[in-house]
Amino acid sequence: MRLRAALCLGLLLGAGCATAPAPNDSTTPAAVPAPAPPTATPAPAARPADVASAEAIIAALYDVISGARGQDRDWQRFRSLFTSGARLIVGAPSPDGRVPSRNMTVEEYVVAADPFLKRDGFWEREIARRVERYGNVTHVFSTYESRVNTPDSPPFSRGINSIQLVTNGERWWVVTILWDFERPGNPIPAEYLPR
Fold this sequence. Notes:
Shape: globular
Mean pLDDT: 85
Number of helices: 4
Strand order of the largest sheet: 2-1-6-5-4-3
Number of domains: 1
Structural class: alpha+beta
Strand content: 25-35%
CATH topology: Nuclear Transport Factor 2, Chain: A
Low-confidence stretches: 1-30
Distance between the termini: 57 Å
Helix content: 25-40%
Largest sheet: 6 strands, mixed
Number of strands: 6
């Protein structure tokens, strides 16, 4: 076994060395510059009250997606809560069993969610929270209930948003939201429900 591993390693190193240019070889082609990274559209300025604390940014997240039938959501406000490269990920399995079932940028979420949120009216509110913090990094398990038609309708769904936040000491940003919802075989554990 050791002989086989040594032989494989020798072949890999030999192949790498054989294709590498010799040091100080004047025939070595000039380095090709790396392509410029894609430029992201800067996030809109956040409302200072929305990003003043972990609690404030969580409240703003729920507030911006909630509203009556036909009501436009303030997607600029939503965008302002996220850091560059942020992701929103559905942790529940898709109908074909794939997990995660959806992994979206902030823009992809806005496009996918807007028609659904406005169709019947949608409200999501936090019912319990568990927070872990180290330095500038905070992880929030935010248990939620979702409602349609009116804010006082019985919940049609419950679940947990796993929200990763970061702060620079002046404001907070959402880095990732990963969520899963309650379903047969996946109840919310008691420690994540209101006490």
